[in-house]
């Protein structure tokens, strides 16, 4: 008698799809992780996330073996959404407004997310999803800068490498004590953007090494 299992075949090795409740729990954990890391930063624990999600910590550990795995999944989603914002900006006709708008929207997102700002500062998470999303953001920022130069609206000497330091400067402003933090960082972003706009009377911009 043939005793082979009936499920042996080309599809036998394929992973079974997550049950509906398991997938709902995964999304619930990710949503809770986003909210907890945004409020408390990367010092938050898996226990914090489990409590916020209303789940047992064992359920969280079954999905994500440690905090780094969960944080990488959470911030890969965050960075994917920022990359999508950059893609939307590329569709705008005014290249300077597109670049300025992307900077403002991404910084607005960071202003509400302590964990995202800590990730921007320290970059301690290195998952494949994060690396892919960072690469997409970098590529789209390069295109935003190139379009602005092509339209003659961006100051000579500004490159895509300047975007991250600009974001870091505004992040530092976000840390200043003030009664109106949102107004403060937007004020200084406006000053920076004014310096990025091309004008006929501008002096040459020195490069980062001080040789310009």
TrEMBL record:
Pfam families per record: TetR_C_43, TetR_N
Domain of life of the organism encoding this protein: Bacteria
Alphabetized InterPro entries for the sequence: Homeodomain-like_sf (IPR009057), HTH-type_TetR-like_transc_reg (IPR050109), HTH_TetR (IPR001647), Tet_transcr_reg_TetR-rel_C_sf (IPR036271), TetR_SbtR-like_C (IPR049445)
Ranges of the DNA-binding region feature: 45-64
Keyword entries, A-Z: DNA-binding, Transcription, Transcription regulation
Domain called HTH tetR-type: residue spans: 23-82
Protein name per the record: TetR/AcrR family transcriptional regulator
């Amino acid at each position: 008698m043939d005793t082979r299992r009936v499920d042996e075949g080309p599809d036998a090795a394929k992973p079974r799809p997550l049950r509906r409740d398991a997938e709902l729990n995964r999304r619930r954990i990710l949503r809770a992780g986003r909210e907890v890391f945004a409020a408390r930063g990367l010092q938050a624990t898996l226990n914090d996330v489990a409590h916020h999600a209303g789940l047992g910590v064992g359920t969280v550990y079954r999905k994500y073996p440690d905090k780094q795995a969960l944080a990488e999944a959470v911030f890969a989603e965050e960075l994917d959404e920022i990359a999508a914002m950059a893609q939307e900006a590329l569709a705008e006709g005014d290249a300077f407004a597109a670049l300025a708008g992307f900077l403002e929207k991404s910084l607005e997102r960071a202003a509400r997310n302590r964990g995202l700002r800590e990730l921007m500062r320290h970059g301690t998470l290195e998952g494949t999803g994060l690396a892919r999303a960072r690469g997409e953001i970098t590529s789209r920022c390069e295109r935003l800068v190139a379009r602005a130069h092509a339209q003659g609206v961006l100051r000579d000497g500004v490159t895509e490498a300047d975007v991250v330091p600009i974001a870091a400067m505004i992040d530092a402003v976000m840390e200043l004590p003030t009664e109106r933090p949102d107004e403060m960082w937007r004020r200084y972003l406006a000053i920076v953007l004014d310096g990025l706009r091309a004008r006929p009377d501008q002096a040459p911009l020195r490069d980062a090494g001080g040789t310009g």
